[in-house]
Amino acid sequence: MVSDSITNASIHAAPNNNNNARDVGKKKRARSAKLKQCKLDVRREQWLFQGAVKNKDCKAEQNGVVEERKDRNNHRPFGNLGMRPGGGENDGSIHHHHHHDSDLDSNSPNSLTSSVLGSNYSETNFTGSSSSSSSSGGCCSGNITEDDEGGGDDGCLDDWEAVADALAANEKPKNPCLESPPEHDPIAQSGSPQETTIGSDGPSFGVENSKPQCARTIPKASGNGLAWRPDDAFRPQSLPNLAKQVSLPNSNRKHYGCGGVPWAYSGVVSVPSSCPICYEDLDFTDTSFLPCLCGFRLCLFCHKRILEEDSRCPGCRKPYEHEPVEAEASVHGGSLTFRLPRSCSLITRS
Amino acid sequence: MQASRARLFKEYKEVQREKVVDPDIQLVCDDSNIFKWTALIKGPSETPFEGGVFQLAFAVPEQYPLQPPQVRFLTKIFHPNVHFKTGEICLDILKNAWSPAWTLQSVCRAIIALMAHPEPDSPLNCDSGNLLRSGDLRGYYSMARMYTKLAAMPKKG
């Protein structure tokens, strides 16, 4: 239960964070900047400490904070997942389907797949699990990155300024989350029960949710759990990439501070460093791009190509139902459009 | 450069690097055409194909990896899911279950797995499929073994 609640919380948190980030980000930019740096430092220390000893505790706290927000927003996470069209019932069923499918896949091609693609699969799975457990902080970064990606989808890939803006907006929301965790712990607890109840509706469902969220959150989560240890080893690789790919100094630093490190780590370990489809290196945007609940990652170019063809996830062979998510993200340039889908999903759900 | 070509180049490098890793598979790219590959795979042990070396021909489409490669046996093989004359292979991952995440190498592994676990219910070789479906394992084994010896094993003397 504990773990479940945590995962749920983290999941919920992620969407909230996004919302918050967007809503709050614009308002709080000025003020958040100061807070961020302070908190980031604090946070790092926390990570160093807790990450090594207990990842869960930190997560729980953070999750709790996140949960609060979630509670307000309620089931936004699903909206993020792209479930809106289906509605509440559909959500459950869809998730179940995923479950089955994944099982089936594993059975049929899997014997093969496991051996053949095993590397990819296992990696993704691991990330999922890790993220689920530790998603608290990660959620923020993951979501943010998604947003960025969405921007990329829109065709803004080349437009670094836009990306930078998006990053900045995202970061700001992060800070509040990061700061608040300790304070909100009690709240978080209160929130968690609700989450669990939701999960109870469909157990597999809950798990599924946690997965996708996790995947998104993976970067952070992994960062939280592993903190800096792995990071040290992998730093040399990831850092240069960051410098190259993210030309935004401010946002970049922030990311680095909050989720950047974890991200780097995850990129090396849990997240494949290259796109399994085209074998090109995944850049920052790609790394934080999680198009499918199964956790299969690929670069935006390949994703687009696949959408134009059979539109099935290479990892689980399920059709990309999450196009809405992307659409969301892509549209997200206007915050209004973004909210609309979510609110719809909320309505359908409730 | 097309994505398919780029990807095949990457796979080629990968193959060069992993040659040692999987001794059962030897993937070779055509010298002049990267869309043509051949593979030598060893028959899996504890099957009638054990000890045989089977040659596969890959024809990679331009849309690869979004489209699966076309693979067929160049070596004669008696297997319910392989057409006895053309060498065409009936394997889901080469058709509707294809995923771009698969590679030529993984396709080879899949084919080896198919050799060890035939699917007599979707036969391309009806004779072979019927033997299995009627429960005549011994008949299937001996037929497959014979063709393995005839076609896939170096002739002695």
Automatic annotation (TrEMBL), chain A:
Keyword annotations from UniProtKB, A to Z: Metal-binding, Zinc, Zinc-finger
Residue ranges with Acidic residues bias: 145-158
Region called Disordered, residue ranges: 1-34, 64-158, 172-206
Comp. bias intervals (Basic residues): 25-34
Limits of the RING-type domain: 275-317
Biased composition (Polar residues): 1-21, 116-127, 189-199
InterPro entries in UniProt: Mot2 (IPR039780), NOT4_mRING-HC-C4C4 (IPR039515), Znf_RING (IPR001841), Znf_RING/FYVE/PHD (IPR013083)
Gene3D superfamilies: Zinc/RING finger domain, C3HC4 (zinc finger)
Comp. bias regions, Low complexity: 105-115, 128-142
PANTHER family noted in UniProt: CCR4-NOT TRANSCRIPTION COMPLEX RELATED, CCR4-NOT TRANSCRIPTION COMPLEX SUBUNIT 4
Protein name per the record: Uncharacterized protein LOC103338278
Gene designation: LOC103338278
TrEMBL record, chain B:
Pfam families assigned: UQ_con
Superkingdom: Eukaryota
Record flagged with keyword Nucleotidyltransferase: no
Family: Belongs to the ubiquitin-conjugating enzyme family.
Protein name: Protein PEROXIN-4
Organism: Prunus mume (Japanese apricot)
Entry-linked InterPro entries: Ub_conjugating_enzyme, UBC, UBQ-conjugating_AS, UBQ-conjugating_enzyme/RWD
Keyword field: ATP-binding, Nucleotide-binding, Transferase, Ubl conjugation pathway
Transmembrane region(s): none
